[in-house]
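Input set for joint prediction.
Command: fold jointly, output tokens.
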Amino acid sequence: MTPALLDIEGLDVAFGDRIVVRDFSCRLSAGERLGIVGESGSGKSLSTRALMGLLPPRAAARSRRYTFDGATYDVAQPKALAALRGRGIALVLQDPKVALNPTMTAGAQIAEVCGRMRALELLADVGLREPERVYDQFPGTLSGGMGQRVMIAMMLAAEPKLLIADEPTSALDVTVAQGVLALLDEIIAARRMALILISHDLDLAGAFCDQILVMYAGRIVERIGASALERARHPYTRGLLQCRPRIEDRGRTLPTLSRDPAWSHE
Amino acid sequence: MSDHWRNSLNPSMIIGSMIIGAVFVLALLGPALTAMSPTEIDLASRLLAPSREHWLGTDQLGRDILSRLLHGARLSLGVVVLVIVLVAPIGIVIGAIAGVMGGAIDALFMRVTDVFLAFPRLILALAMVAALGPGIENAVLAIALTAWPPYARLARAETLVLRNKDHIAAIRVLGGSETRIVFAHVLPLLLPSTLVRATLDMAGIILTAAGLGFLGLGVRPPAPEWGSMIAEGRQFLLDAWWVCTVPGLAILIVSLGFNLLGDGLRDMIDARSR
Amino acid sequence: MIRVDDLAVSYDGRRVVSDVAFAVGRGQAFGLVGESGSGKSSVLRAMAGLVRDVRGLITIDGVDVSRLRCGQGARRRLQMVFQDPYGSLHPNHRVERVLGEAVDIAGLDRREERIVDALSAVGLGEAFMRRYPHQMSGGQRQRLAIARALIVEPGAILLDEPTSALDVSVRAEILNLLMRLRRERGIAMVMVSHDLAIVGWFCDQVAVMRNGRIVEVLTPEDLVAGRARAPYTAELIGASRGYRWRV
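tokens >
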């Protein structure tokens, strides 16, 4: 078994006495892809933010074990986790307009990490046809797909070992999303990066990742291989699978999810 | 909801509220507490330094400065409250209507606003007083005339953003009138920022009123208006510094209090809207 | 029930929709699908009367409402549900005020009765009357928005991405609700979405829009069978099927 790149066990995140992530654990090796699927409030984003020390100020985290690339870290010390960011773990977010600095040109933001020459190379690597032109553009003028590619270029500049992509295509048009996903696919494979893909879209996670974690109310309710998704056993996962509208089911009432309070207590 | 508010309390707001609260209480009750008259002349006691009998000393006509200060608080705060009460509602209604209606009405209202904005406050006040004569009512009017434009602008700017909100569109689609939209939907949402603006403005109004008083306009002697107290005390600055320094400090503290309160309110509202 | 002909919409002189025409019968649903910039939301807003520069014919139940202002006269029979359940409700208005206001504007009688009926039609109990929007979940807010549209007895409801901002498990509930209302009350609906599966499930016909024009109109059966005539439609269907390949 390849040594784990990321090994987190028993992660809890709380705001005061409200616990929002409970007992989150996972192991990930280089080149592996993990999908975390859940709805709003499931804790899917917060758990990964905790790994990078990017929780909001009023949140506190703790875990039984947290190792990354051979070194041990403490989620309760977010400042120390700064060392991980960029070179160890990189983050790509949903909306480039919000995640990029609107007052700096796209290229300048990448160049901050790696210099102008490399920035231009990276802009070309992410499939932008006119790197020099995009270099000088401000994020507000970039289309959704272009902005996302710029974010990916920025992420690549630090050459991370693990990429966390938090709803990277949710704000994009369907055809544009395909292109961005293909790009991510290629980059991750070529550099043997590990990937955590966070999404509300079970289908997307299933198609893109090897393993899926389904989260509900801060807990992992199912851990399943992507290829076995249709055979999921937990009622919440089954509910998510069944309540997707399909054109083929026209005329029939969609099955809905009835939330069992027991799921919050497993 | 109450948790939310409690979490956003900040030092500025607390200190500011305490200062202003204290000032209001003193203004209301103070005059009843001091036995000494603010206007009775007693030349035998002129320019006495602060002592146990006259806590803040006496001025050039022997009047107790502390009691003049407390009575003057009523005047100053009265001017502030009157101005705000006149100016804020009119300003935000004008701004909201301009923002909701757009087009020619918007242009007209904003040009009128521009005209009034162009006047420096004190100059207009001088002109008013020259035209109408000195007195506290005219001082209030003069200050009000230059104080309303920022409220209109602020209201209009916020309304332009609100105008595109779906809940306004929904009312339109239901057939709701523009009047309903302005008064029932837009105005209530403008109140928080208007409140902040008004609180911050109060400091400026106090200073302007004091400025008018200093110049001998606005409130007439022997009324204990703080600005005129400073003006009268100027000539004694070296020998009896307390005569003009004390009212000056009072103006400073009250302005500071309003500023802190306004800052704190703004931070609190920002936190809530995030 | 609804007919649109020769619809053209412009913003600030820039044409964003041209030559749009379709008809929707009682209790039927028509879908507008496309990517951002396709003009689909502009069509809806133009139908609702929210856009100034509109040319063309819009009729509801045979009455020409194209010249009427928003919500006036027969145009009130055309109501709208917006995408963002947070933005489409006034933050300081309670549920009963939201619905009561709609009744008042429309000048209808039996105010309390109508409010209770509208709430129960969307599956919200009377306990919700005194609640503020921030005390409700996204799905509940959207139900309220639907109740608001229903309470004035519309002949047609325009739906602008009604479930996009909702959690996946809540979408099904709202879609079921809309389907039921359509069938029980015979309300015609026009739904805009970027999600082909939702539109295909809900609507009787689907128009694919691009650059302000309708590229083609298909039935959901056509979609399932992949019977698209225009290459853009095929591209859209392919992209909607999900991420296909792995390196």
